[in-house]
Amino acid sequence: xxxxxxKTAGFCFGVARAVDIVEKCCEDKDNKYYxxxxxxxxxxxxDDFSRKGISPIEDIEELSGGEKLIIRTHGVGKDIYDRxxxxxxxxxxxxxxxxxxxxxxxxxxxxxxxxxxxxxxKNHPEVMGINxxxxxxxxxxxxxxxxxxxxxxxxxxxxVAQTTFVQEVFKKIVTFLKKTCNDIVIFGTICNATEERQxxxxxxxxxxxxxxxxxxxxxxxxxxxxxxxxGVCPTAYCLERIGDLPQGCDFxxxxxxxxxxxxxxxxxxxxxxxxxxxxxxxxALMEESLKTLNTGDIVKGTxxxxxxxxxxxxxxxxxxxxxxxxxxxDDPNATTDSVCKVGDxxxxxxxxxxxxxxxxxxxxxxxxxxxxxxxVKKAADVGEVLxxxxxxxxxxxxxVNYKGYKVFVPASQASEKRDADLSEFVGKVVAFKIIDxxxxxxxxxxxxxxxxxxxxxxxxxxxxxxxxxxxxxTGVVKSITNFGAFVDIGGVDGLVHVSELSWKHIKHxxxxxxxxxxxxxxxxxxxxxxxxxxxxxxxxxxxxxEIVKSKITLGEPATxxxxxxxxxxxxxxxxxxxxxxxxxxxxxxxxxxxxAAELKIGESVEAKVTEIDWDNKKIAxxxxxxxxxxxxxxxxVAEEVAEVEAPAEExxxxxxx
Length: 657
Prior knowledge:
Shape: elongated
Number of strands: 32
Number of domains: 6
Number of helices: 17
Strand order of the largest sheet: 13-14-15-17-16
Structural class: alpha/beta
CATH architecture of the largest domain: Beta Barrel
Largest sheet: 5 strands, mixed, barrel
Strand content: 25-35%
């Protein structure tokens, strides 16, 4: 007798995931857990969980509220979730991710007005759950004959399939639907693992004299496997356990094939092999060809499938291993397909080997973490610069994530400024060095400042090699005070005095520049002994007193704007930064007592340039000189003879304006 066991026999990903979660629930002795219906269609597994304190219930009305309910792999309809929420029941959802995907497809297309068609067994809990996401109005077909008589004229149709349905039957049903539906979308939702399992079972049955299909009597996928095998190999048995095999079966000199449904634990498959004739020689052959894996092993394997939530790895063992998405990388934003591809050789850490369900959980992240720690120690020894993202601010410092390790950076080592706001660094990538390491506790202390100090020193040395009065730099405004702005011009800060920021009179530097601005400056003065640098910002060509020389001519009229009114006259802007004085005697061709009665601030007037003193930056203007000549009263004449002048301090104000 020869025995061949299907490689895909036993738990699929969804079942393995569900059983693993329920196993953890069994460890919680402080709470009471139930499952809505059997967690999977396998009596052996359900009975085992019952012995551990987790029993199935058939109706959520059996719950009084406050319990914890496990939604089984087959999934349930939307109304169940709503009712559980009303009853204040905590949900542990182990619905197979592939089934959950179908729920989302059905709900979305139902809302968009599509008629939902489910290809599957209408009495199967998975199909009933799917139907619950379109208000239980789906058309459900299990045979091509049922689909053949369907009429969806003038309707948009969305087709999905039960994950464990037979692929060939699904294709036939779809063929009929395509002929009768003009607007149809089809989602091939039969699970890849199911398709592979069915294909392998068919091939194995074609090469076997006897086929044994192990699985629960209520398991839809097990029954479909049996149907496939029976169609190819007439001598086929569907058994919950090998002990159910009829007496008198003779397998001598026969080729025996063994497969199992997706909800059949590995222990039942091993039991079946152990009961077969010549098991010892077979087991020795099997053990010789397959690896024995233990928790904690570091092994190499080949990536055979990349899914959104896991990576399947061929380890050369009886069962393939899987890496959950959360164990693929220490980067929380990494996706499975960004880390590895089908065919890649990958080294992994064996997290857990569960003989009960044949589940081999792997982790690439754990192995990377071990290697990363060794690299971190080497980096600390040689002073290597590392990079990581700042994740949070903590008491007296911040945390930088370096490939899964938390590096504490004290506030004094986080920035050049002692009072820096560390929250500004959160989410940013920073360069740092390890300055302290605790190998036993796996604790790291880093410094960003040592990098910044080294960079600044290098820039300063480069700066002083070529610094000279008159040299122009593009710098960044680092800080602002009442008397000026400090500008970083390459590792060295220089001061732009407030008087150097604008040709106009300004009250504060913030009127011209802001922290972070990039501005062009030049060195006005260097004090070698103190290393202090004075910078210039305003340019000679921007001097309004130079510009105004081309704008006005002595004795000619100019259009000016009244900007300030005083008791003795008015100041008028000729161009921004240059004002002229219109004396009270030059505002009108008659005597006036109040300039404000004749002029308004902001008013534009024509005035003659009657005097220019470029050295003292004074310009005299006259509106009167452009007005018609009228005989003036004697007192006006006397006033002119007196040539009353404005007070010296006010004339000074005009210059500053």
